[in-house]
TrEMBL record:
Primary location recorded for the protein, binned into one broad class: cytoplasm
Keywords: Cytoplasm, RNA-binding
Listed name of the protein: SsrA-binding protein
Originating gene: smpB
Compartments, record wording: Cytoplasm
Feature: compositional bias, Basic and acidic residues: 141-162
Length: 162
């Protein structure tokens, strides 16, 4: 058996293809879940270029399956006529038990499924980090911003005083 080129204990190489930075500001994040995405070949190539956008997308359960709605993966220019639709619904791959948990979670008042990021794991597979979240009101967003600013100022003061 040939020696493996993989290092044991090395950190996993994760390449982020799309990030939903507004989600942590606009939503109170609860549980997170790693899901697979059913993609076409041109979608994978476009994701590797890193031009995707999931800022306004969400996940929905339709006909007993989980879908990512309104995500934008641009067309891959080299594929010409074999390209994909940029905003098509994409099936998310989860186990039946996880789907039942997600369905129960979004039945609660004000909860929704928000994608946080699309990335490639160490095996080169496209994954989506999905969160069960509750929308924040404007005053909650201001309160969180004040709290973050105070934490930053407090850390700066502690550094200066030693």
């Amino acid at each position: 058996m040939a020696p493996s080129n993989k290092k044991k204990g090395a950190a996993a190489q994760i390449k982020i293809a799309a990030d939903n930075r507004k989600a942590r500001h606009a939503y109170e994040i609860g549980d997170t879940l790693e899901t697979g995405i059913e993609l076409k070949g041109t979608e994978v190539k476009a994701l590797r270029e890193g031009r995707a956008n999931i800022g306004e997308s969400y996940a929905s359960i339709e006909n007993g399956e989980l879908y990512l709605i309104n995500s934008y993966i641009p067309v891959y220019e080299a594929a010409n006529r074999f390209n994909h639709a940029p905003r098509r619904p994409r099936k998310l791959l989860v186990h039946a038990r996880e789907l039942a948990k997600l369905h129960a979670a979004i039945q609660r008042d004000g909860m929704t499924l928000v994608p946080l990021k699309i990335y490639f794991n160490d095996r080169g597979r496209a994954k989506l980090e999905l969160a069960v979240a509750r929308g924040r009101k404007a005053h909650d967003k201001r309160h969180e911003q004040k709290k973050r600013d105070w934490q930053r100022d407090k850390a700066r003061l502690m550094r200066e005083r030693g």
